[in-house]
Amino acid sequence: MAKTALITGILGQDGPYLAKLLLEKGYKVYGLIRRYSNPSFDNLDYVGVTKDVNFAEGDLTDESSLINVIKNVRPDEVYNLAAQSFVGSSWEQAKLTTEVNATGVLYLLNALKYFSPTAKFYQASTSEMFGLSNDDGYQGETTQFHPRSPYGVSKVYAYWMTVNFRESYNMFTANGILFNHESPIRGIQFVTRKITDGVAQIKLGLKDELRLGNLDSSRDWGFAGDYVEAMYLMLQQETPDDYVVATGETHTVRQFVEAAFKSAGIDDWEKYVKIDPRFQRPAEVPHLRGKVDKAKNKLGWEPKVSFEGLVDMMVKADIERYEKKIAQK
Ligand code: NAP
Ligand code: G4F
């Protein structure tokens, strides 16, 4: 019989890529969605799976809605991707961030414990938990956590709650500690998409500047389509565990900017980029680079898309989007 998966955060970036992967593997896929006045299925449309997903209404901050969904869906696997995922907003909306990203995970784990205790559970943990820490320039599964934002702090709680349900109730719960991953359907606020969208508009003469914050921080950027495979693999193992998922390479925001302008055939990027303090953070995570040996050795997972390939994919997709809009006018 086909397995059933429940994906929270189905309308975000990772949800659609994961839904597509699971549908291709023959799963029945349910996506948790909140009540919207004007819902957008654009990201699911982009990967071409909207009509194949079943939707269940619920919110991570509403425990009874999660209980209902788990009772009705009885999933074999749950992928908890829902979050207030923008680090920048987490200082302004620290309580909301905590309620969704931390307490919400406790609600979901409890719903599973009572109504679907054999379901396997994936928690979307993050390299933001490492914050200031590294071991010889890398962050791995044993690197200490030192989160630098309310977002990072909320995710540390969820990480340990996921471990605790495994240790206390013998449930199959796994943390994927994913480093930054991007795609043409990345939210527009995140720096990569903000850059590729800005570059596309500059290329087509729709704007003449791109305002950014700190260009010196470095991130280990990979492609979201590759990373959802690691999520799936974690839940196919004999025993639950926690894994870092990353490329093992790091690049500064400045290098991403340079690569994006280059991809669009523009050499003099400094002419267009303005530093704007509004986009600097109260506390920065200066350097992220994942040590990915465990995922490679135990899951047999490897990233496929290179840094240059990722930047190029995103720039081309944004140029294409604006060209279509211009043609429709
Ligand atoms: P995303 O694009 O921001 O998607 C998050 C999804 O969560 C959205 O669909 C959002 O719904 C939903 N959501 C927010 N609050 C909710 C609530 N109260 N109840 C139910 N759903 C809610 O994030 P992503 O990039 O796909 O990332 C997926 C997960 O991985 C997140 O947990 C993120 O923190 C984590 N993560 C991401 C990265 C990365 O680089 N992308 C790295 C490490 C970890 P709306 O559509 O209504 O906003
Ligand atoms: O793209 P970002 O906003 O992503 P950030 O903060 O690294 O968080 C993302 O990755 C995490 C995994 O490590 C996820 F858990 C999290 O959910 C999210 O997906 O910022 C990246 C870097 C930061 O150093 C930021 O200060 O870019 C710098 N930056 C410089 N100018 C900017 C800007 N970030 C944004 N969003 N906007 C700017 O104008």
Please describe what this structure looks like.
The chain has 2 domains: 4-181 and 223-245, Rossmann fold (3-Layer(aba) Sandwich), CATH 3.40.50.720; 187-219 and 250-284 and 306-328, Alpha-Beta Complex (UDP-galactose 4-epimerase, domain 1), CATH 3.90.25. The strands form 4 sheets. A 7-stranded parallel beta sheet has the order 3-2-1-4-5-6-11, sandwiched between helices. The chain has a two-stranded parallel ribbon with strand order 7-10. A two-stranded parallel ribbon has the order 8-13. The protein is built from 10 helices and 13 strands. It is of the alpha/beta class. Helix 6 packs parallel to helix 8. It has helices at 14-24, 42-47, 63-73, 94-115, 150-169, 191-203, 224-234, 253-263, 293-299, 307-328; strands spanning 4-8, 28-33, 54-57, 77-80, 120-126, 173-178, 181-182, 210-212, 218-219, 222-223, 242-245, 251-252, 273-275. The model has no long low-confidence stretch (mean pLDDT 98).
